[in-house]
Write a structure and sequence with these properties.
Elements (H helix, E strand, L loop, with lengths): L10 H33 L18 E4 L5 E5 L14 H11 L11 H14 L9 H10 L6 H17 L2 H11 L9 H9 L8 H10 L3 H4 L5 H17 L5 H9 L14 H15 L6 E5 L3 H14 L7 E8 L4 E5 L11 H4 L9 H10 L7 E3 L3 E3 L2 E3 L9 E3 H6 L3 H11 L1 H11 L20 H12 L3 E2 L5 E6 L4 E4 L5 E2 L3 H17 L13 E6 L5 E8 L2 E8 L14 H10 L28 H15 L3
Parallel strand pairs: 1-3
Antiparallel strand pairs: 1-2, 3-11, 4-5, 4-16, 6-9, 7-8, 10-13, 11-12, 14-15, 15-16
Helix pairs in contact: 2-8, 2-10, 4-5, 4-6, 8-10, 10-11, 12-22, 13-21, 15-17, 15-18, 15-20, 17-18, 18-19
Amino acid sequence: MAKRSNGKAPAKPRRGLVRRLVRLLPALLVASLVVWVGLFVAYAPELPDTDALFNDARQARVTLIAADGTVLAERGASGTAFVQLGEVSSTLRDAVIATEDRRFYSHFGLDVRGALRALVSNLRAGGVVAGGSTLTQQLAKNLFLTPDRSLRRKIQELILAFWLEARLSKDEILELYLNRVYLGAGAYGVEAAAQRYFGKPAARVDLAEAALLAGLLQAPSRLAPTVDLDRANRRASTVLRLMVETGKITAEEAASARAAPARLAPAGGSELAGHFVDWVLDGLTEHLGKPETDWVVRTTLDPRLQRVAEAAVADQLRDQPGIEAAVVLLDANGAIRAMVGGRAYRRDRFNRASAGHRQPGSAFKPFVYLAALEDGHGPADVVEDLPLTVDGWTARNPGGKRYGNVTLDEALALSINTVAVRLGQEVGMAKVAERARLLGIGSELRPVPSLALGTSEVTPLELTAAYQPFALEGVRRPPFGVERVTDAAAGELYAHRAVEAQVVAPETARQMRNMLGNVVRRGTGRAAALPDRQGFGKTGTTQDNRDAWFVGFAGAYTLGVWVGRDDNRPMPGVSGADLPARIWREVMVETAPGEVLAGLALPQAKPAPARREGDSYVLHTVKSWFDRVLGATN
């Protein structure tokens, strides 16, 4: 058999293809250039003077006004001078580059490898799970562009990134980025953030602090250590791993930093409602951006009631070392009149009221009973109290106590566990979770049998808001903390719009209201009874007394109180029927007794505001988004 030739003939077609591609290359380059020029002409924004970018980075003054017209707080008045790159810790610079753009010093504004890797990851996940933007692109977006995510905006971002790379050195780009990036709690730039969180300049942050700051770049408002220090430090641990991967630190150095995570410096001054102020500022900055001129923010906070709430926490926890508390007070319109995020803002800025996720225990049971009433049950229906086992889990009453035959009204008043679980199984835990979400619970609710006893974590703010429809004939009015925002020229940047929805039938809401009244009259909530009017509410105590709650309403106010330890250790002898109920009573007796819900007019929900002349589409969209966040969420 003749041996097959190994000559060069088969290679000729491939070589011919290469030749054709080489001949086409000039035409492809010209076509690409024409397309790029066309895109540049069509989409390029006005290019600013780069010299102006290095001017002093004074932060505008933001003045927060309380509901009575007094000044609640001022932030950013002194500003933070623009710091040179050499005045930023090299550890912090390395942490930012390792986390956000490890090929920063080698690309030309677009990291092709990183962009392709992000594209593949997103295609595999079927959604956006990775980003491919370089530091230069992020700087372009932060300096010149809106939060819009359109294709036009991405093209503009790329054009500006190339322009910045052509005009500035890499060190100048990094210097601008570190001075302009948002890092939560109203702080722009690493110097402001280092001073805000650690009470020191950016030149002196250590490895753990540098990792925390770099980690905030992923989601500054959500990861801010003033919101959730543990979550911020978990993200910092990821940053340390990335720094090891890029050779900036050793594994031993990373382990040492993890063993001694960053801690917040004590807050200065004795600011009233510090947790509320931080919460408002984070919402403002996230949805309206960095203030370029001075702002005046008119909030809903009532200073008198805020002082009452802070004093009640201090009074009731005076002999309870290590125990923390959170308080949220809403008026009938959903306005936040008082918010206590912890017993000492100066020592600890974590806001347990808005960000503390804890199990509500029996304070969740009203949503089970609501679902049962809507399913055809009545308050007078009789149920036998018997142990119940579902999927290997057994529901029992504390101490194994048995009540025999009880009405639903009595079962809620006495907080009988087995009846709540039995009702949940009858109507379906998925329906219970759906009803709780409709009333305002935004946290994840797992529709398992134990959900009837409040085993899914919620925040005090959302649980308090979810009780309000029981007081308002079934109408939900989402909580909000800002009435209006104006700039230095008195131009309106934001105004709250009343939003409401009928989420429970009025008759069903009245039934629930009467049942919650019996909790206070003759049930577990007797310690919350008021001297001048009827109170309505529910106690909640979790397993081993790790969390204690009282949430309820009276007159025109809805009030939620949580008590617990940050490390989730038990509180022997503490239940929702004592400390939280007493704090609730101490605050509620100071609210105006003459304001009764029966006399309140329910304002009609207003449609979305029309786009004003002169507003760009993006500005109009941002205003509407901000309105939903601060005026129509949770």
